[in-house]
Design a protein that fits this description.
The chain has a four-stranded antiparallel β-sheet with strand order 1-2-3-4, with helices on one face. The chain is about 50% helix and about 20% strand. The termini are far apart. The protein has two domains: about 1-60; about 65-160, no CATH class. The chain has three helices and four strands, in the order H-H-H-E-E-E-E. It has about 170 residues and is of the alpha+beta class. It has helices at about 1-60, 70-75, 80-95; strands at about 115-120, 125-135, 140-145, 155-160.
């Protein structure tokens, strides 16, 4: 009788070990599959990040903040670039407050509105590109700017265009 109990216990323990082995193997394989999917997804995200970084570098190529030659030009003139960029943009935005027609934008606005410069991008130490709109019409201007020792900024219009109205 004692021997049968041991045999039953042995068979039961073997079944328990077999169940644990199969269950552990299934869990291990599931974790490996998850890890492989995460690795694949991580590689895809890294590739996406690299392509976004490349696109950002390409888009920011004409940017005063990233142009070492233009920064050196201003530093040689005694300007600090981190203060100069906001100063130039602010002076251009201040022209939006002038009474009457905008002094830079060569196009008249629609009735009851005023052309205003919306977005400004400093390309280098001499050029600015900006877009303007009155809410109905919009366009872009290319400006040449100069700054003197007294932080006075002079803007000269080089080229402009107005998008066609549909």
């Amino acid at each position: 009788m004692k021997q049968r109990i041991f045999i039953y216990l042995f068979i039961f323990s073997m079944l328990l070990v077999l169940f644990q082995y199969v269950n552990s193997k299934r869990i291990f394989e599931d974790l490996n599959n998850r890890m492989e999917k995460k690795d694949t997804r991580l590689e895809r995200y890294k590739d996406s990040l690299n392509s976004i970084q490349d696109a950002f570098l390409e888009a920011s190529h004409f940017n005063l903040a990233r142009n070492e030659d233009a920064i050196s030009y201003f530093e040689e003139e005694g300007f600090r670039i981190n203060e100069l960029i906001p100063l130039i943009k602010d002076r251009l935005y201040e022209l939006n407050e002038v009474k009457g027609e905008h002094p830079i934008v060569p196009y008249g606005s629609s009735e009851g509105r005023k052309m205003m410069i919306n977005t400004v991008k400093l390309l280098n130490h001499k050029w600015i590109i900006a877009d303007f709109s009155d809410g109905e019409f919009w366009g872009e201007v290319l400006l040449v700017y100069e700054i003197d020792k007294n932080n006075q900024v002079a803007f000269n219009l080089v080229e402009s265009f107005l998008y066609p109205f549909d």
